[in-house]
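so my prof wants the structure for this chain in the tokens format not the other one, which i didnt know existed until like an hour ago. anyway here's the sequence
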Amino acid sequence: MATLYDIKPRFQALLRPLVRRLAAAGCTPNAVTWTAFLLSAAEGAALAAAPGAAGPLLALPAVLLVRMALNAIDGMLAREHAMRTRLGAMLNETGDVASDLALYLPLAHAPQVPAAALVAAVACGVVAEVAGLAALAAGAARRYDGPLGKSDRAFAFGALGLALGLGAGGAWVGPALWLLAALGLATAANRVRAALREGPP
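here's what i got, hopefully its the right format
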């Protein structure tokens, strides 16, 4: 199933000149990974400190776009500039989930956001990422199947932040979040099925 992950090669091509400059300057993938997490934590703290305030909500799409770029950059530095490390691989996966939690959970405090639906949407997103990683433990490749991969979730939560920041929240928010939760579980199921189709390790 197609997801925003499919446009990653084109996104990486745009970033490649910057990645070369960062590599030449001695920047490491782990430093980029930590930057992405700290940016997420700072935005999450702003959302939590001023629930429903327009500024942090309107900043959320931009923060998510920058974080997406940083997530691509750390991987490109590791793969294309011989900087792969076991620590980096672990930081990359745990940092993504930690960043999701730091960014999305504070939205539960915003007016017109049902906390239970928000937590369910975030939790199901985490389950989807765990399913992708569980494929490795089963001897298959890391799975990125949709319909709601990491980039798709970022787009959805960015759109939610933008709508709330513009005062366009309403009764639709709860059902939209429950839909994200359902899509997260569907994504987890798709990843498990795809891993099992690869056969035994």
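also thought this was worth mentioning. The mean pLDDT is 93.
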